[in-house]
Records
---
Amino acid sequence: MANETKYINLSDDTNVSVSTKLYVDKYNNGELAKSVDLKVTELIKPLPDVRLDLVPRPVYDAEVQLNEELQSEINVLNITIDDLSSQLAIKTADSSSLFLENDALKLKEARTDNNLQSIQLTVTDLRTNLTTSLTKAINEATEKTALEAENQGLTAQKNALIKQIDTLNNLLAQANASLAVAQQQLSAKQQAVAAGGLATGELATIVFDGGDPTKKKVEGRDLSNDYNGGFAPANKFAASGDPFKNNFSSYFDVVAGPKDISINVESTEGYAQIPFNFGFTLPITIKANETKRFEMLTGNPAWVNGNNGNDGGTWYRRSRPSRTDWTMKITIKDIDTNGKTETKDFKMRTYKY
């Protein structure tokens, strides 16, 4: 990188004067910067973190947020209790000081009595000393009365502070209870999802006895069944034959979330009414955290009579089952005014004999 170098030779021992110029090595600044500011980049990037969301993210985030808000309220209440306890300690110390002052006043009163006895011995100074003593006694009595009144006020404040602490303890207990309920709700949802449940959103989770039907579709159908024939007993639903043998559920449970909900089940495609007789009138309302079971084994009379179970026409066609692909829609609604609504659709196939 040096461009030019010159040397001076003084090996000859002479007295001759020598004059010359000194040159500093010249470097290429660009090349020097490249060699110093060298930046090495790692070619192998770290592996990405694995994140397994076993709970639906909206459900998990909502419950975690509620948990954090309740914990924040508990922290605020604890700080308030500490502040009130400090104030109570200060007031108690002030009260003790007032008791000492009261005792001092009693001592002063005793000294005054002694002074009065001494004054009575001197007739000449009786009027002057009597006036002074009376004035001093009146002032001390007034001060004593004021101190006693202030002491009573401090006692009342102390009792009020004790009541406030009791109230805050009750609020703290309520907050802890709410936190326990929230944790229980989150645990119930986690258990339902772990059992193969399907979250409708934030309001409920649907659990089929055969597991998640959307993960074992056959010919595009989530569930299939026979009615009144085939592989089913008379007037009952049962699993169809192959390839639908394992594509059947005899019931499903609806697990409510943290709010009261209304549940409705209907057919939106294929049938005019739902084929199943659940044993109760729809829609049905359940409380928060409750579970309601919907049996899918008995036929709905309106469906049985309204859908005759055959293709119609000749005797041969009547002897064969009707095959209907239909959609079962489960609607979950928050019963509060302007509450949100969540739905889940399931593709069904029914062979009716």
Note: The first strand starts at residue 198 and ends at 199.
---
Amino acid sequence: MKQFLFQITLAGVTFCPLLRGEDAQPSPATSSVTTTPTIVGPAREFEPPPRRQLVADVPESQVLQRSRVATGGRTVTIEELIPPEGAPLVEQASVPTFTPEEIAARRAAWLANRRAHPIVMLSLSGTIYDHKATLLRWRHGVEEYEAWSNIDFNVMRGVPSVQVGNTNYDLVMMLGDQSTAPRRTKSGLVITPRVPTIPQLPKVPGFVIVKGDPLNEYALRGIRALHELYTTNREKLVAAHEDQLHYQAAAQAWEKEHPPQPENVTIRWWRGRRDQEATSEAQPAIKPEGGQP
């Protein structure tokens, strides 16, 4: 088992760059997006959650011990019950074992698959100004990149990944909106936000690099793919974003009219047959009713 864990750890250390798609510098692609993305988002109207179904009480004779804890304006009750008839035997899950030859073969297969289908984690942070331009920031290796895009990246929130050739870019986007209009505080002070200088942006969906190597096509492939995706799927992306906003507004309105109220909670459990045969050392630390253990 130790050898297996060591082999897996060594494989992770050795091939993490490959997992990020850094095994080779792929050639640039002029039309690179090869798949239609799955756009994540609600495609339905908001429906209020159903009322919680209360669990029926159990006979007092079935309760072995009970403890209660008051927290957050509610009471949490924990009850240990007598095991029901025919409670299944809990078996310990088997752990597969591999020979060194099997480990090497599995690692070689994994490596070949990653070389053929690299996975790149693309972490983007973006500030969206007035829903008109987005300042994107990301890293390629140790180098920092910044680019101004003429896309309102709010519409890209529902895109979890994009595929370019055989490379899949998994997206982690942290986006925030910023208004450039002056605002007045409660004290009457007028604050004008500081806005970076926005360069001349393309007339069609595109971006301008303002930090980092603009000739490193490998560092730009994911960003370029997102803009190509927007160009070919703009209507779907905008519709999905508007649907998400509508869903969120309806959910917030309902929650405002129906603020959550603290509810008492009861947790019931019992021991499996294997637990019943264990020694008293396996007893859980549950406080008895109305006192200290």
Note: The chain is about 25% helix and 25% strand.
---
Amino acid sequence: MFLESQGKKPLMQQEEEKWKEVRFIADSGASETVIPPDMLPRVPTIEGEAKKLGTIYKGAGGQTFANQGEKVLRCKMQNGKTGLLTAQVCATTKPLYSVYQCVRAGHRVVFDEGERGSYIEHKATGSKQYLKEMNGTYELALTVATYPF
């Protein structure tokens, strides 16, 4: 049974809608972590340094994408901890997780066979986030807040 008040959605449904699983493709060719502009619409897009500079990204197929700002995402990690991830917003069709930015931030990225063979490891703490092979790519599943914080 759900509790309702004053025409609002049931409380359990409200809580579930605050978080969404987002599957980022781990991309060793991406210079930035990016998400499409329509993803997580309640999280504000802010003008970051890349937008101010007029940054243009080039896709694997040669197409270009203008930076439309950035979103700071609150994420629940696989180990239960929360953290922040800044994603640039551009007209990509899928969220891409930049291996380059990840390594620059003190992580090690391993791609290997097996269920726990591929992962992102924080070098200082040893904490791991596991990647899953999906249709020829490796994905990082993060639970992301769907609302501003």
Note: Residues 11-17 form the longest helix (7 residues).
